[in-house]
Every structure is written in structure tokens, then in C-alpha cells.
Amino acid sequence: MIISKQFIFDAAHFLPNVPDGHKCKNIHGHTYHLTVLIDGPLQENLGWVIDYGDLKKAIAPVIEQVDHQLLNNIPGLENPTSEMLVVWIWQQIKPVLPLLKRLELYETPTSGVIYEG
Ligand SMILES: Nc1nc2c(c(=O)[nH]1)N=C([C@H](O)[C@H](O)COP(=O)(O)OP(=O)(O)OP(=O)(O)O)CN2
Ligand SMILES: [Zn+2]
């Protein structure tokens, strides 16, 4: 069974490697939507895979690092495309949540990335 929880954070970024004149060379902000999907067995007595609250506690330290920050200032996110950011998030979450199955990260309502490690 796969369960999911969504996290929303705001951050600024610019993309340093795009050509001059590209709109994303300018600093701008997004309200990111991150969905974390966990694949695991149903615990029969509890009737759930894992507690959504425990999921929230596990993800909170990652969200705290990026919320209301300029992503480019964070080590490893010097070129903070959606693709680079989702890998950076995965690398922190997977060790603490081995059942992590998939991340979905949207930086606008129409632009996002899906990553499964
Ligand atoms: N493959 C990628 N392409 C782009 C990324 C990215 O991370 N990966 N990022 C950007 C910019 O961050 C930009 O802010 C988002 O681009 P875009 O979807 O074009 O944003 P719009 O709001 O203009 O999109 P609409 O089409 O108006 O919804 C660019 N490309
Ligand atoms: Zn952007």
C-alpha cells in the first residue's frame, strides 16, 4: 500500500547556468508543493502503513532548511532546478524513511518533477 503526505514551502531561487536573457536567471520565488509517497505493508493492529504524524516529523528538518530561504545559498543547491532539488531532498529523506517510494515536487501549478531514486 502506498500512502502520501503533501508539504508546502516557499523559497526563492535563480538558475545561474541558463543563458543571459532567460527569465530564470533573475531571482524569483515559488510556492513549492512536495508530495512524499511511502510504500509499505499495512500494520494490521494499527490499520496504517505509518503514522502521518511520524512522516511529518521525519520530513520537517528538510522543510526547515529550505522554507523562506534563497535555495542557491544552500550547499548542494547552487543550481536549484526542480530536478536538483528533488534529488537533494531524496538524499536526506531516504536514510530516515527507507520505505520512501517516490517524491513529486511542483514549483508551479504546471511544472514539476517525479523522482523514484
Ligand atoms: N526542466 C526544468 N525547467 C525549468 C526549471 C526547472 O527546474 N527544470 N525551472 C524553471 C524556472 O524555475 C521557472 O520559474 C519555472 O518555469 P515555468 O514552468 O516556465 O514557469 P511559468 O510560471 O512561466 O510557467 P507557465 O507556463 O506560465 O505556467 C524554468 N524551467
Ligand atoms: Zn523558478
Spatial strand sequence of the major β-sheet: 3-1-2-4-5
Estimate nothing, just give the exact number of structural domains.
1
- In terms of DSSP E residues, the strand content is 25-35%
Bound molecules: ligand LPXRUNBV, zinc ion
Q: What composes the largest sheet?
A: 5 strands, mixed
What share of residues is helical?
10-25%
CATH architecture: 2-Layer Sandwich
The tally of helices reads 2
Overall outline: elongated
CATH topology: the name is: Tetrahydropterin Synthase, Chain A
Stretches where pLDDT falls below 50 for ≥5 residues?
none
Structural descriptors:
five-stranded mixed sheet, 34% strand, alpha+beta, binds the ligand Nc1nc2c(c(=O)[nH]1)N=C([C@H](O)[C@H](O)COP(=O)(O)OP(=O)(O)OP(=O)(O)O)CN2, binds zinc ion, elongated, 23% helix, Tetrahydropterin Synthase, Chain A, 117 residues
Architecture blueprint of SSEs:
Layout: E1 2-13, E2 28-39, H1 52-66, E3 69-70, H2 82-93, E4 100-108, E5 111-115
Parallel strand pairs: 1-3
Antiparallel strand pairs: 1-2, 2-4, 4-5
Structure description:
With 117 residues, this protein is of the alpha+beta class. It has a single domain, classed as Tetrahydropterin Synthase, Chain A (2-Layer Sandwich). The protein contains two helices and five strands, in the order E-E-H-E-H-E-E. It has helices spanning 52-66, 82-93, and strands at 2-13, 28-39, 69-70, 100-108, 111-115. It has a five-stranded mixed β-sheet with strand order 3-1-2-4-5. It is elongated and about 60 Å long. It binds the ligand Nc1nc2c(c(=O)[nH]1)N=C([C@H](O)[C@H](O)COP(=O)(O)OP(=O)(O)OP(=O)(O)O)CN2 and zinc ion. The ligand Nc1nc2c(c(=O)[nH]1)N=C([C@H](O)[C@H](O)COP(=O)(O)OP(=O)(O)OP(=O)(O)O)CN2 binds next to helix 2 and strand 4. Its EC number is 4.-.-.-. Its cofactor is Zn(2+).
